[in-house]
Design goal:
Oligomer: single chain
Strand order of the largest sheet: 3-4-5
CATH topology of the largest domain: hpI Integrase, Chain A
Strand content: under 5%
Order of helices and strands: HHHHEHHEHHHHHHEEEHHEEHHHHHH
Shape: flat
Distance between the termini: 96 Å
Structural class: mainly alpha
Number of domains: 3
Largest sheet: 3 strands, antiparallel
Number of strands: 7
Helix content: 40-55%
CATH architecture of the largest domain: Orthogonal Bundle
CATH superfamily of the largest domain: Intergrase catalytic core
Number of helices: 20
Radius of gyration: 28 Å
Length: 463
């Protein structure tokens, strides 16, 4: 059982601040989570603090009162305490403790998940990738436990709790078996089961494969290179849904005001959904008719087109925004979120109009990262609903999403004779091969071959 004194928690708080491991305003929350970890884990049995942390995270995740960002903050606080603050103590850690295998080759599922999580963080994988990989591994381990249960029941002659041949999939780690024996054949069987029984898409199957390969190589030290070449599903090429110029006009005409401006900027600049939501007022260059995208996909900056037709509406919109910003200043919630450490480096920047959101939310809300009330940018779900409603109002039957406007932007540029390399820069594609998919779409919009049926019908009419 792990113990922590009041002196240690105070020293930990000082340690966080002196080494700038977290913002001063967040330190009290980090201390709260570490205290809660020690309190809640007193009755749990485990060999390492990382196993206890896995159980702690699972409990928090299952609680309806705990948000995802709180779970992430709690986990980070505990890891900072042990990895950084108490790194010199004799507290056992999964980082130094290798996985223990039974005589039959089985391993603790909780220890395995902890080891994979540590490997992901050491290699600086993103938080979203970490959560996706761990979720797939949890599902696979439940499947493995179900298969083992069916096999044991069959060998003993005792009826299994589930029918053989119908393994169990998981949505939470609560269903994890204690131990599992993982083999290359079991991984193959699971991927085949996903494809045949669950009928998942090829991209989903490949995502599961990537997660299991990471687990096998990073934690289990299994060589599955040959398997990865044989079982990877073929995704095939799919052409994007694109609106014709006439359909685009009908679509954009069905929205006005701020909503019409949102859709106009998204189509006119080929913006991704989150790129549009995160635009700041300073990202608009009226003189050069450009929009600057900061920290786009791959954390890359780029510039794209600002349609001159939206400039008058955009100037009017900025005038209204300035008034709203002044009202927020008076109310005390004009500070906006700043990326990286800019809030500490430029202490007044968060209140400047240049950093204000181009499309702010209608109501202020509590920022969980800073613990203060302020106005956030418009939510992606709002824009998605807007696109759905406008599609219905315009009478367009195609499946239209925010990304459809981006596809239409690139395709219409090609139709207008814009160079492919230039379109690549506007779109922010790493490779021109990604941009080339729009050349296939353009073929269906111009210089189309005539159907032989039309030729026959015309011949019959002339004859």
């Amino acid at each position: 059982m792990l113990e922590m004194s009041d002196l240690q928690i105070d020293e930990f708080g000082e340690y966080l601040l002196t080494r700038s491991l977290c913002d001063e305003k967040h330190a009290k929350f980090y201390l709260y989570w570490v205290k809660k970890f020690f309190t809640d884990s007193r009755e749990w049995q485990a060999d390492t603090w990382e196993v206890l942390l896995q159980q702690f995270v699972n409990v928090l995740r299952d609680s309806p009162r705990t948000e995802d960002w709180q779970v992430a903050q709690a986990e980070q606080a505990v890891r900072l305490y042990f990895h950084n603050f108490r790194s010199g103590d004799s507290v056992p850690s999964a980082a130094t403790k290798s996985l223990v295998f039974d005589a039959n080759g089985s391993v603790s599922c909780v220890d395995l998940l902890s080891s994979v999580r540590l490997s992901l963080r050491i290699q600086h994988y993103s938080y979203r990738t970490e959560q996706t990989y761990l979720d797939w591994i949890r599902r696979f381990l439940v499947y493995a436990g179900s298969v083992q249960q069916s096999k044991t029941a069959s060998e003993s002659g005792v009826p299994a709790t589930r029918k053989a041949g119908r393994p169990r999939d998981a949505d939470s780690s609560d269903e994890l078996p204690d131990r599992a024996r993982i083999t290359e054949q079991l991984v193959k069987d699971y991927l085949a089961w996903l494809a045949t029984q669950r009928q998942v898409a090829a991209s989903t199957q490949n995502q599961a494969l990537n997660a299991l390969l990471f687990m096998a190589r990073g934690a289990l030290k299994l060589d599955l290179d040959e398997m990865s070449k044989g079982v990877r599903a073929k995704t095939g090429k799919k052409l994007p849904v694109v609106l014709s110029p006439a359909e685009t006009r009908e679509f954009l005409a069905a929205a006005d005001g701020t909503q019409g401006l949102i859709l106009g900027l998204m189509y006119g600049g080929g913006l991704r959904l989150k790129e549009l939501c995160r635009l700041r007022t300073k990202d608009v260059d009226f003189d050069n008719e450009l929009i600057f995208v900061r920290g786009g996909k791959g954390n890359k900056d780029r510039s794209t087109l600002l349609a001159s037709s939206v400039i008058p509406r955009l100037r009017t919109h900025l005038t209204k925004l300035r008034k709203l910003h002044e009202e927020d200043l008076a109310a005390g919630w004009a500070e906006v979120f700043l990326p990286d450490a800019l809030a500490r480096k430029y202490q007044n920047a968060a209140k400047e109009f240049g950093w204000y959101w181009l499309f702010p939310s209608t109501q202020p809300s509590l920022d969980p990262r800073a613990g203060k009330v302020r106005r956030h940018h418009v939510s992606p779900s709002y824009v998605q609903r807007l696109v759905r409603d406008v599609r219905k109002a315009s009478g367009i039957e195609k499946s239209v999403s925010p990304h459809t406007l981006r596809h239409s932007f690139a395709t219409h540029l090609l139709l207008n004779g814009v160079d492919l390399r230039e379109i690549q820069e506007y779109m922010g594609h790493q490779s021109v091969e990604t941009t080339m998919i729009y050349t296939h779409v353009v073929k269906t919009m111009r210089n189309r071959a005539r159907s032989p049926l039309d030729v026959l019908e015309e011949g019959a009419m002339e004859g």
